[in-house]
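Consider the tokenized backbone below.
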């Protein structure tokens, strides 16, 4: 289980990330673009992945990581249950989401070789 405070430390650890309200949730943005949202009440994080990345991450455990229902999910947006996910898996998903959204110069620092 990942606590909200642990999640916040991870999400805000990336360069130039801002935290802003997004309807009833909290969004995390880089270059004014959302790459993560947090529903603190439900303890669910949504990350921006490609469809291919989503398929790989969802293989891990479909009760932990799964597509957002509807069209957003078909575009790669993926839900992660903070109560069930392991820290390493969450950090990997957050990193991929950041790299998908950040300008190349910022993303290069976090991409695996």
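A designed sequence for it:
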């Amino acid at each position: 289980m990942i606590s909200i405070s642990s999640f916040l430390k991870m999400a805000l650890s990336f360069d130039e990330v801002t935290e802003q309200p997004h309807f009833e949730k909290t969004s995390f943005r880089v270059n004014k673009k959302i790459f993560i949202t947090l529903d603190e009440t439900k303890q669910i994080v949504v990350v921006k992945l490609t469809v291919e990345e989503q398929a790989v991450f969802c293989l891990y455990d479909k009760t932990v990581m799964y597509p957002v229902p509807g069209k957003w999910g078909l575009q790669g947006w993926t839900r992660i249950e903070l109560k069930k996910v392991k820290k390493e898996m969450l950090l990997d998903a957050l990193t991929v989401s950041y790299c998908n959204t950040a300008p190349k110069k910022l993303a290069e620092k976090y991409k695996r070789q």
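DSSP finds five helices and six strands in the chain.
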